[in-house]
């Protein structure tokens, strides 16, 4: 498939910052309790994972390839127009025109509770057919008969009953019975009633047919993702474990390619490829395979495969991946030997990056397997969204402390936290550090050089954070309107748009820092005339020979090396202060955090 190769190249560029404002606005609407900038930042990132998958698909205009399934039989009889009760609800954007007012109310209420269309899910057959979205080469592959057995672990928190039933049904129907040891349901303290008795009744019916096939582990309080997954692993007895979300449906022959791969090498940890299930119509949309990766916030991103994979010219072949998102398949004992997951991770985020780094450094590897596909609902909102940012930052710092060696400060830089005394408790890391010793894991530098060279070095950053003029400390340098190329002075809020970086070469980035070599930061420039400073793609600005190098030391002037002019502030005719370039008058600037004295 030639498209895949092209997409691979394009996807590299996809790493998203453009959706930031859109999703920010949306998240604000979704959760009014969240107000702090870090919270919004995290939510933005949370949404970004799913946005990215979506974007990858959209980027290549998969419209033609979209495999749609008619989920509801539309009656063609003419009806009197029903009043739309929720014109602004995402649920009704492209669904539900036929519903009565009562039905709309019920559907909207359930949508609010779960973030997807439970009303529709309840009406669809539990064993509905989904389209085969695999590459055509997958269908003709032959797998050995004697594959390892598999335990499937479904983790959930307040999932709709019909969604879980469908996940279970699809796993039973689409996994060879002699290979499926069990399905383990891990309920991380759901509160909805129908996941108690009604679910148990459903389990009872299946177990009557196949005794012991479905097991349930229910936590008495919320353990968080890592611990919930560990408890599933502990309950498992199959040779291989698949740890999945519960809002999924597996595709035909999803297990065989994974099990065959582990049969040849038990140290490979695998990820299937997701398809998107729309939260409103529950239609399945095909996604092309991509590898899993992360940025210096240790937040997940999708990327293209390595060049070698594209050279194979066979998109059905597994490919190496630097990281793994939540869903994983591994040899049960091997996963145990390398320490399953870090129990010290709280709530959400980071635990998958920790696993990925550990797998690679301690004797294993990670692959994405295109012939194994899983349809996964992309929720409009998460029903559980307390303060996730704290957990995200904490978990990222914890991973950094255990695994990142001399690179650990990059996580602080990416989150704009002080290098020392950040006041965040990352828990006890002694045991995990001992594990690293015991397993004789390689240094992180090896991972950067051999597994993930696209992750860029931040070695040359000397200072970072908000950049303030000593005369007006309420104001910060800000990237200004986007799109646009004029940095401005703006009331300090410490969002990413005000994150500045001064590097060893004398460049000043404004508006955040990029983590990958395929991206470019935006550099402060002096256009040479006029008083308005510029903000341009650093790589391009360098090529064009723009004046992007500045002399700056903490609490001193910012002076352009080429033009000798200074970045200063001045009161305009409107009496506001503006960011200007002019002959130096001795104004001084202070950057929030200093890495090396400069
Ligand atoms: C779904 O289940 C019903 C009832 O067991 C059965 O009659 C039907 O053939 C199944 N459909 C598919 C697509 O397997
Ligand atoms: C800027 O810093 C220099 C050197 O530290 C100092 O002499 C000067 O007074 C400062 N300028 C202002 C406006 O405070
Ligand atoms: Mn999910």
From TrEMBL:
User: Which Gene Ontology terms describe the biological processes this protein takes part in?
Assistant: protein O-linked glycosylation
Q: Under the cellular component aspect of Gene Ontology, which terms does the record hold? A: Golgi membrane
SUPFAM superfamilies given for it?
Answer: Nucleotide-diphospho-sugar transferases, Ricin B-like lectins
Domain called Ricin B lectin: residue spans: 463-592
GO-annotated molecular function? carbohydrate binding; metal ion binding; polypeptide N-acetylgalactosaminyltransferase activity
Q: What is its EC number?
A: 2.4.1.-
Pathway, per Swiss-Prot/TrEMBL? Protein modification; protein glycosylation
Membrane topology listed for this record: Single-pass type II membrane protein
Which Gene3D superfamilies does the record match to this protein?
A: 2.80.10.50, Spore Coat Polysaccharide Biosynthesis Protein SpsA, Chain A
Could you tell me which SMART domains the record lists for this protein? RICIN
Group of enzyme by EC: transferase
Protein name (Swiss-Prot/TrEMBL): Polypeptide N-acetylgalactosaminyltransferase
Q: Which organism is it from?
A: Culter alburnus (Topmouth culter)
């Amino acid at each position: 498939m030639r498209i895949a190769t092209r997409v691979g190249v394009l996807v590299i560029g996809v790493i998203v910052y453009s959706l930031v404002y859109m999703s920010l606005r949306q998240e604000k609407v979704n959760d009014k309790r969240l107000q702090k900038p870090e919270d919004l930042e995290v939510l933005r990132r949370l949404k970004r994972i799913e946005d990215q998958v979506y974007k990858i698909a959209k980027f290549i205009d998969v419209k033609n390839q979209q495999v749609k399934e008619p989920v509801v039989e539309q009656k063609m009889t003419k009806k009197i127009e029903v009043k739309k009760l929720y014109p602004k609800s995402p649920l009704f954007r492209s669904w539900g025109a036929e519903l009565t007012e009562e039905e709309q109310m019920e559907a909207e209420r359930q949508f609010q509770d779960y973030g997807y269309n439970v009303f529709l899910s309840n009406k669809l057959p539990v064993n509905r057919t989904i389209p085969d979205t695999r590459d055509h080469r997958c269908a003709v592959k032959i797998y050995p008969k004697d594959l390892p057995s598999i335990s499937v672990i479904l983790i959930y928190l307040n999932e709709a009953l019909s969604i879980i039933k469908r996940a279970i049904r699809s796993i039973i129907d689409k996994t060879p019975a002699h290979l499926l040891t069990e399905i383990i349901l891990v309920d991380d303290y759901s509160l909805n009633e129908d996941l108690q008795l009604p679910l148990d009744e459903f389990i009872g019916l299946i177990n009557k047919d196949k005794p012991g096939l479905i097991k349930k582990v229910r936590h008495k309080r919320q353990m968080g993702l890592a611990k919930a997954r560990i408890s599933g692993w502990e309950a498992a007895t199959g040779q291989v474990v698949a740890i999945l979300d519960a809002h999924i449906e597996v595709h035909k022959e999803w297990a065989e390619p994974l099990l065959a791969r582990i049969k040849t090498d038990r140290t490979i940890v695998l990820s299937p490829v997701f398809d998107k299930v729309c939260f409103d119509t529950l239609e399945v949309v095909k996604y092309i395979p991509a590898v899993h990766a992360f940025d210096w916030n240790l937040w997940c991103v999708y990327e293209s495969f390595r060049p070698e994979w594209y050279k194979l010219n066979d998109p059905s072949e597994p490919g190496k991946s630097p990281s793994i998102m939540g869903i994983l398949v591994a040899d049960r004992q091997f996963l145990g030997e390398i320490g399953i997951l870090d129990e010290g991770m709280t709530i959400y985020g980071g635990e998958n990056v920790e696993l990925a780094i550990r797998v690679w450094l301690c004797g294993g590897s990670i692959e994405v397997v295109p012939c194994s596909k899983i349809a996964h609902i992309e929720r409009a909102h998460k029903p559980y969204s307390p303060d996730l940012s704290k957990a995200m930052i904490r978990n990222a710092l914890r991973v950094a402390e255990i695994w990142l060696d001399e690179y650990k400060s990059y996580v602080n830089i990416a989150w704009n936290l002080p290098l020392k005394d950040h006041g965040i408790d990352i828990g006890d890391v002694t045991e995990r550090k001992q594990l690293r010793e015991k397993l004789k894991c390689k240094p992180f530098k090896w991972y950067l050089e051999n597994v993930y060279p696209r992750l860029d070095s931040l070695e040359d950053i000397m200072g970072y954070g908000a950049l303030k003029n000593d005369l007006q400390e309420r104001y910060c340098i800000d990237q200004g309107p986007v799109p646009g190329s004029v940095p401005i002075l703006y009331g300090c809020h410490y969002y990413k748009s005000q994150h500045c970086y001064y590097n060893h070469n004398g460049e000043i980035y404004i508006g955040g820092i990029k983590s990958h070599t395929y991206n470019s930061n935006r550099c402060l420039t002096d256009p040479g005339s006029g008083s308005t400073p510029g903000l341009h793609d650093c790589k391009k600005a360098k090529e064009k020979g723009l004046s992007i190098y500045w002399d700056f030391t903490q609490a001193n002037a910012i002076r352009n090396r080429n033009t000798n002019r200074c970045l200063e502030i001045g009161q305009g005719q409107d009496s506001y202060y503006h960011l200007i370039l002019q002959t130096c008058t001795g104004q001084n600037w202070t950057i929030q955090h200093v890495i090396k004295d400069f």
